[in-house]
Amino acid sequence: MKIKDIRASVHTTTIEVPLLTERVPGYGREEQREFVFCEVETDDGVTGVALTGHFLSRAVVVALEQHFLPVVVDMDPRELEAIHQRVWRSLNPRAMTGVVSSALSLLDIALWDIKGKAAGRSVASLLGGARTDVPVYVTFGFPQYDRETLTAAAQLQLDQGFTALKLVVAVSALALVIFIVVVLGGVSVLAGFSLLRLITVLRKELAVVLGTSSSEAVLPQLMERLEQVGCRRSVVGLVAPTGFSFNLDGVAVVIPICVVFIGQVYGIPLTFGDQLGLFLIFLVLSKGTAGISGSAFITLANTVAATSLVPIAGLALVLSVDRFLSLIRALTNVLGNAVATVVIARWEPGGLDRELAARTIGWSRPKNTVGEK
């Protein structure tokens, strides 16, 4: 089976915009949309068809009929990888415009259609089921390197990638453990109570956070538990909810690590000034972040896009492990807010029931009583 001809044409259709209930000046309830229809004909009489959007429609038609056809004519339409290799190597100088990419997408769909028809199966069945290998189309490096070099580089990146993703979770977890032990532990000692006993008291709430990766999910239970350890209701009612918006320690610590990780993946060196600036930015932006699962990733995406220090495409790497990062962020957020509430209650006259706190979280009057009245 060989490719004999490629035909492409531009078509226009009218679509209704359902969200417009009345005519808007300069617009109507109907819009004209263009699309490109492509047919790839083989010498066996099997024709593959494809449809794509309206990006530079007429340029895509010209690319298919005048530039693609001479390159792929007489090739086996089922050899998708070979066709991609030849197209990119032959038309690479024009690939960056997007026209070649759109045309190649059309050709690819049509070739899959031919492949399915030749096998007597739907494309869905050809692509369905469990897969151990996923085809990836990439244009980087084609003009400079041969296929063997690119294949070796891709394998190296694959081998390193999983380790790198494990490391970003491990480093983030280690940073939060250090933060909890050194910062929260130090604050607890100065305030005169045991952080370990507080964690023991909050074990049920922390277990819920571990299952939901959301700090907001345990706010009511946390407030009730803090009252049970001796904090006055009025203090808990002010400090705990406020802390869930303005005291997200886990977000402030982990998110800068993710940016540095993306920079390392792309080989972009970040100076100490860059890292310090990012830390300060995230320290501010963490205020007001919602305490729901995944909200910190939105903050990360907005800041990466605004600062332009690292490629925004690198967010996909962090997204793949964000579920695990979200867990440790949420645990730290809850624990940090619990510590803050106890400390504020201790500073507030009558805000902490000393006897109850002594029995539950091991409170004792510290040597340094700064803030006591």
UniProtKB/TrEMBL annotation:
Q: How does it sit in the membrane?
A: Multi-pass membrane protein
Question: Taking every annotated instance into account, which residue ranges of this chain make up the domain Mandelate racemase/muconate lactonizing enzyme N-terminal?
Answer: 30-128
Instruction: Tell me which stretches of the chain form a coiled coil.
Output: none
Q: Which GO terms describe its biological process?
A: L-aspartate transmembrane transport
Subcellular location(s) per record: Membrane
- Is Zinc given among the entry's keywords? no
Could you tell me what this protein is called? Sodium:dicarboxylate symporter
**Residues annotated as transmembrane:** 167-196, 235-262, 297-321
Q: Which GO terms describe its molecular function?
A: fumarate transmembrane transporter activity; malate:proton symporter activity; succinate transmembrane transporter activity
Q: Which GO terms describe its cellular component?
A: plasma membrane
- Native species of this protein? Nocardia brasiliensis (strain ATCC 700358 / HUJEG-1)
- Which keywords annotate this record? Membrane, Transmembrane, Transmembrane helix, Transport
- Broad class of where this protein is predominantly found: membrane
